[in-house]
Amino acid sequence: MTEHPVFLVTGASKGLGRSICELLATQGYTIIGLARESVELTELDNYLKSHNSSSVAMVCDLSQPEQIEKVAGEVVNRYPSINGIIHNAGIIGPVGNIFTVDETKWDETLVVNLVSVQHLTRILYPAMINAGRCRVTTISSGAAVNSLVSWSAYCTSKAGLDMWTRCLADEGRNDGISAVSVAPGIVDTDMQATIRSADKADFPMVDRFIEFHKNGDLVAPDKVASSLFELIVNHSMEQSGNRFDVRDL
Fold this sequence. Notes:
The protein is an alpha/beta fold. About 45% of the residues lie in helices and about 15% in strands. It has a single domain (about 5-185, about 220-240), classed as Rossmann fold (3-Layer(aba) Sandwich), CATH 3.40.50. The longest helix has 28 residues, at about 105-130. The model has no long low-confidence stretch (mean pLDDT about 95).
């Protein structure tokens, strides 16, 4: 048990997820950070515990349903009340023509970016109810509303995630659960580096993303996390179901 509000963050080891974890930790929250096994995740665990001994970073590969079952079960046992969830984890997936792209990788993108969100949240549901008030934030993308050539898996998964958020807002209201989605803009993360490395034959718009980087248009994850903080921890029931853009916050 912990007396501090408990927030769970996926994709916690790097990029925006890491920045959100660190910011919440410095503000007194108990953090559960989930990500694939890495040196960065171990470092995050040490950082979180240095602020709050009840916080933890846990290994969980969201592409593996059995890992979600195991880890989420452990989380509910250890943290009977969860005050917030930030579904941040996501992969860009295969970049390529919708007719010829690797089908296995396409499916995996939908699993990580969308299906795992439903799976994880269902298991956490008892702890969300116990909190009396639970705020869920999903990290959306401009790709959720604007199709991009060669990004069919990512665009589809993010559009689905936006609708899932609206459904959760509708169905969670009576349990004190609210849900909002937010587009974080162009964040300077490993995902952006992956996009810039794409072959132009697979992704005709790659030069545009290279220019974003060259022109300094990418925003540091820490800055984005700061902009999102109030929405994540204080969004209201009246705001539930809405989609926000970080540039408007």
